[in-house]
Amino acid sequence: MICPKCGTENSGNFCIKCGTIVKDNTLYQINTKQITTNSLLESYFGLDYNRIVMTPANIAGGIFGPLYLVYRGCFIGAIIMQLIQIGLFFLLIPIIATLLPIMKPLSTYIIFAVILFFLQSALTNPIIIAHAKRKIIKIRKKYGPNREKIAKAGEPNFASVIIFILLMILIGMFAFYFYNTL
Questions:
Q1: Residues 29, 20: contact at Cβ < 8 Å?
Q2: What stretch of H or E contains 28?
Q3: Per-residue pLDDT reduced to its tens digit, 51-100
Q4: Rounded to an integer, what distance in angstroms lies between the CA atom of residue 145 and that of residue 67?
Q5: At a CB cut-off of 8 Å and minimum separation 6, what does 155 contact?
Q6: pLDDT digits (tens, 9 = 90+) for 125-180
Q7: Of the candidates 81, 109, 77, which has an alpha carbon nearest to the alpha carbon of residue 93?
Q8: Which residues touch 105 (CB under 8 Å, ≥6 apart)?
Q9: For residue 153, which of 170, 163, 141, 162 has the smallest C-alpha distance?
């Protein structure tokens, strides 16, 4: 029999290529093992699945912020979070200093760091999960539900963290030079 879905010639009642049940020229799709988004996310994150998908806040994301996002492969999310940090710095530091004029400057920066920690902790996991879902969709379009490719795509990347740190140092040096020449 020829499979009506993919055109492969088969001798049995199902297609050896696509898994479609072929019986009396009727098309049936095997639906016994539904691959869900959560199971694919579990393949993508591996041992980190519970810490990333099941918890609302991420301590490592709160401490390291954009570096943690780069480590997980979310480069655009890291850049956006870095811009948010810079914007919040220029927005919140004057507000905190104005509202609490009796505080010393160091206390102002500590309050800012605590606010930033909680904000980054809350935003890190949703950014990583959204990035993982987009990556899984791309992999499924190209390779099907290949769990090995999905797991490989979810592996952390240490080299990108080093490149990101060097990039931030260069940007900082440029900003310092530009600020001092004004």
A1: yes
A2: strand 26-28
A3: 898 888 999 999 999 999 999 989 899 988 888 888 888 888 777 777 77
A4: 29
A5: 46
A6: 999 999 999 898 888 888 877 788 888 888 888 888 898 889 889 988 888 887 77
A7: 109
A8: 97
A9: 141
* 27 beta partners: 22
Question: Is the pTM above the cut of 0.85?
Answer: no
Side chain identity at 63, as an amino acid letter?
I
Q: Which residues contact 177 (CB under 8 A, 6 or more apart)?
A: none
Domain locations along the chain = 1-32, 35-181
Strand pairing of 21-23 and 26-28?
antiparallel
Burial 62-76 (b: 16+ CB within 10 A, else e): bebbbbbbbbbbbbe
For residue 182, give both structure tokens: 């004004």
